[in-house]
Amino acid sequence: MTDPVSPSALPDGQALAALVAGKLCHDFISPAGAISSGLDLLRDPTAQDMRDDAMGLIEASAKKMIALVAFARVAFGAATSSERFSGAELGGLVADLTGGGRATLDWQVDNDSYSKAESRALVNLGYLTVAALPSGGAATVTTRRDGTGLVIEGRAEGARARLKGEALAGMSGQPLTDGLAGQWVQPYWLWLTAHDAGGTLDVEAEEGRVVLRAQMPN
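The structure assignment produced for this chain is given below.
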């Protein structure tokens, strides 16, 4: 991977907070808008024959919103009373958010107890592994502890497994120079999580295969 650039070229705390907030708003607007549309249908006296469809839309969108909020609390924030999370809890957050897509998730993570920093790295890496398979494939996330700390690995294998340029820049600790900020900020956040903990993030990308590997020291 490319060596990280000088910190002065990267967003400061306020700018990064704005980028994260912008990404979350983008993620939330779709299910929130669908819930609003479903409620409009329920209130429309001329659309009572669509009541079941409206209720289905509201239910599915509410589940999506809940999954997004639960994931974001661990992936981006500290607004939780838990200091540590189990592997099963973290796997549930990623599965709830990515379920129903074209890629399958094989969560082979030890049901250990993970710190907030480890948990943040795990869920972001897991999500981005699945996201590397827009046309489908198999995403496998594993963990192991060695003498120095925790190694988290995500393998995305599929016919069109890939990372966009924005994601590669973010995972290298590079500033965004082109493309969409919303597709850069989560990969950068993963790099920053590993970097701030004194660890590293490595990426291997080749045709049909992407490997993300975060090392989090003890």
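Interim note for the steering committee: The chain has one domain: 7-217. The chain has six helices and seven strands.
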